[in-house]
Design brief:
The chain has 308 residues and is mainly beta. Helix content is 6%, strand content 41%. The chain has helices spanning 131-134, 289-292, 298-306, and strands at residues 3-11, 18-20, 26-32, 38-44, 50-60, 66-71, 75-81, 91-100, 112-114, 122-127, 146-150, 154-157, 162-168, 187-191, 197-201, 215-216, 221-225, 234-243, 261-263, 267-270, 273-275, 281-284. Strand 5 (50-60) and strand 6 form a beta hairpin.
Length: 308
Amino acid sequence: MNKIILCLCFCFLMSMGETCLAQSDIELRYERKSDNTVDFNYSKNVYGTYYLLIKFDDLTNAMQTSYGTHVSGHTGRFFTLKPKNPSSGIGFSYTYIYQRGRVNPRIKDDMVYMLPFKPNTKVKVQKAEYMGLTFGKGSPDNFNAFVFKVEKEETVVAARKGLVVEVEDKYKADTTQAYSFVRSANRVLIEHKDGTLAEYSGFKSGTINVKEGETVNPMDPIGIAGRFDSNKNCRLTLMVYYLKTKKLFDSKKEENKYNQYGYVNPIFCYKGGRSLLLPNNYYSSDCNDELITQEFSRREKKKYVSKL
């Protein structure tokens, strides 16, 4: 979720130098320059794209009260604060906030996803319910997620090419009891080229075989779908979503906190066709070279074809 960092050091005509904040996933540093501008640089110790937003308070000798942009590299220039009067320094205090994702990315309607299992795996598809409803809370306007049920442990594969940005593999299922839901599950988060995010959750403990920072291609193995309770069926949940607001400081308001993200209902390829998935239907996974390489570069396609 989003994280807010407060900088409480109110700065006027300080000597030139660099200041940073306490350790966090994204840190901002500022440096006063000889021309009285202030450079803000970021360092990021997590993978993937984030929207980073800064808001100034107690601002003197400058006009810009806020600034936001996407950051994806591990380090880089965020922006430069310029003085109204170049002969005087700038005074400010500031707060910054960041959230994973690219705001309102351009999503191709004809993008085709693979079912997240090896070819010829039979799956039953169900729609997942937003967990907040279980606790009497609100839910996003267009929440969409799929639960894929399989009869035994099966290898989970990437449904689309992307960058692995988060891996969580620390939960062991209690298979002695029956549960209607579980709060936590082993998961892999993958960022796609267009800025959408795919969360795969429900892996058997210790079976995730990808690492943060790796690129995966369609049909690359990610882990094993496991049981989460005494039910014999194994299941995997897949959710594709994107960040849809730049107003991160408004996210704690009741009317906004459930709708920071939008959700995608993808077209899937399966044996016998391509379409939106219908709940409570059975499908068999399938793939072909055209779909596997649909987001490959020319060089990647050439390398792939050479191995066929």
